[in-house]
Amino acid sequence: MERIRKGDEVIVTTGKDKGRRGSVTRIYADGRVLVEGINVVRKHMKPNPATGSKGGIVDKEMPLDASNVMLYNPVTKKGDRIGYKRLDDGRKVRFFRSTDELVDV
Q1: pTM over the 0.85 mark
Q2: Residue ranges per structural domain of the chain
Q3: pLDDT in tens, 10-45
Q4: Who is most buried in 33, 43, 86, 95, counting CB within 10 A?
């Protein structure tokens, strides 16, 4: 079970986008996450006639390391650490460490 999953709302803790929030769109196997609207870079692309893509400068979202984001807690309106616990019915769920509220319902 991963601490951050696809669809979670996270807040960036370090870097040029510190303090910004976004939704996780992809999780990479090497521990990086792609967050919607965060870490946008301008990439110079060559034209490729085979795929029909035009050349030029393109804005592209780049992945962040998962250690540089925290799950956003809507109650405290801050990033929060995540813990795990087992419920009485045997399910393993995530919870916010500061408020003990469940993330997964």
Answers
A1: no
A2: 9-79
A3: 999 999 999 999 999 999 999 999 999 999 999 999
A4: 33
3 conformational bin, left if phi > 0, alpha if psi -120 to 50, beta if neither? alpha
pLDDT at 60 over 80: yes
44 touches 57 (CB < 8 A): yes
pLDDT given for residue 102 in this prediction: 94
Question: With 70 as the cut, is the pLDDT of residue 79 above it?
Answer: yes
Kindly report the three-state secondary structure assignment for every residue of the chain: CCCCCCCCEEEECCCCCCCCEEEEEEECCCCEEEECCCCEEEEEECCECCCCECCEEEEEECCEEHHHEEEEECCCCEEECEEEEECCCCCEEEEECCCCCECCC
Distance CA 40, CA 2 (A): 25
Distance CA 33, CA 68 (A): 9
pLDDT at residue 1 tops 80: no
